[in-house]
Protein 1
Amino acid sequence: MSRGPAVAAVAAAVVLAALVLGGCDSPDILRSEGSAGNEIVTLATWIFGILAIVLVTVWGILFFVIVTGKGRREQDASQTKGNLRIEIIWTAIPAVIVTVLFILTVVITNRIDMPAKGAQFTAIGRQWWWDFDYKDLGFKSPNEIYAPVGRPTYIDVESADVIHSFWVPQMGGKTDMIPGHVNHVRFVPLKTGEYLGECSEFCGVQHGKMRFLFVVVESEEYTAWVERQQQPAARATGAEAIAGEKVIASVGCGSCHAIRGTALKGTFGPDLTHFGSRRGIAAYTLRNTPENLLRWIQDTQGVKPDCNMPNVPLPLVQQQQLVAYLLELK
Ligand code: CUA
């Protein structure tokens, strides 16, 4: 092997290893835990299976011809031009394959469909975060949703600005979120766990940092979560948090953010009423830890350039008080 191809082979191996090893954090669509996702995996298995048979057959014939035809002169090859029977056969075989793929797709796609019913909540795509509005229950839970295992989840999806796409890879397919139009997502989560959701339609520079968490829990835990979310924000208790509660009321956070039970009533940014209970910051760009939250407040535009939130230019002490207060909002 000369040097060029050897370097290319090593580079390819490194990239492949990085993809395989680095993929641990990203959701695997083949490890579905939702009713719609399972159907998609079934369809994909059928299609790849049929295509694999086609591939192996064609390669087999090709290999056979290469081996048996070796050394024969070109004029000895039998000609098939004008052979009607062969023409019909090799037109019919692809037609049958395509028809089978078509029928499989229609039948399995129909199985994904669930009866229409009122949505439990509305998912609104925004640049670049998720507004999950449980209108009937009276609360919002941006960037993190809970659903009970084994029971149908009904979601209305829409957009406040550009086209986004709602996707929890391990639950089911993608659904476009279109301004001025309501689409519907329906599936049954089949196993408890935390599933990463993402936007799958390019929607601006921070499209890649538009993620959310879909948490599937037992029925009782779901009810408890709803009850907690319905509560207004708790009053601060720690000394630092009490100071932070005063800071947040005085620095203009309320023009974008709401904290139910306080004077903050903004609707442009995520509702922060139970911010401390959420696992992520900035549409799951960072994990919700005191260090990350401080970093987010200090360097918002560095963490997520061009997002609508400005850096919060306060003295460090006040930034730390804000962090203490926000994390108390369980
Ligand atoms: Cu929203 Cu991509």
Protein 2
Amino acid sequence: MHKLSALFLIILLTSCSSIYDSPDKTEQTKELMGTIVTITVYHENKEEAHQAIGEAFNEIERIENILSSYKNTSEVYILNRDKKVEASNELIYTIGKSLRYGDLSRGAFDITVQPILDLYQHSFQDLKRPPTDSEIIQALRQVGYERIYIRNNNIQLEKDTKITLGGIAKGYIIDKAIITLEKNNIQHALVNAGGDMRAIGSKPDGNWNIALQNPRKEHEHIAIIPLNNTAVATSGDYERYFDDSKEFHHIIDPRTGYSATELISVTIVTHKAMDADALATSVFVLGKEEGLELIESLDGVEGLLITKEKDLVRSTGFIN
Ligand code: ADP
Ligand code: MG
């Protein structure tokens, strides 16, 4: 499903283009993390800009090779296969953060949902039918982040447990790309990975402004979000369905084993992309009421939710 979804990818958030294009602008795009990644930099020295962008892309690839579930040499792949792995700092950090988001969201964010995703995939692809309630109950027995054990840099999983970092890794990698750019003397940049992004500094003509598209009407904007050294991430059921009735998609409610269906889209704005990414997935699972409560309880976090009924719900400090 991962490969397929890339073909259907909607870039929900696009950087607003302006008539004025500075000669200091350097931009490069690559296909990574199952999506399209664009790095835009404003920097006088073109050679330095190219060098910095190159290093940022190398960093993205390096960490993707550790955290991806699909690459058969990645630490996550080995962990899921062998139920143990000697982990890099990057994996330890990402899993640690995921566990904290698990607690913060009272279990809505849970990286051990992979057996449910596997069940969906097997049911729809091989058996050509939805999973049954009892199959879901059976798969749910393997789910629960208390089944992950971390001792120093050794990670172990209980039998039949599998993890996915799809709800947090992209954000973490965006942050690492930004750090790499900063280390290379870049002060004004935007890293955009398929609509999840983080900006530093500004553009010569002002803010980094991001247009949030209507997930159901591609050419309609529902908000303009100014990024002032902040990040934005969106979780939506928009295009990644397992079935035609759109009941089964890739964001799982770990409390039921079914896909979360109360919202169609959640956009989070906060300082770091990793937090925005994990919170977007968490709020998507929690739904309108509990999701908003979580956003309002956190400092420096704002959100825009779209309900199934297409109502737009903003947190109190959401600017657009
Ligand atoms: P996108 O992949 O479109 O950026 P998300 O950031 O919401 O969307 O991530 C969705 C991914 O998160 C899924 O593909 C899966 O790997 C993972 N995931 C699904 N449900 C959960 C959950 N309840 N908690 C944590 N991760 C989840
Ligand atoms: Mg996410």
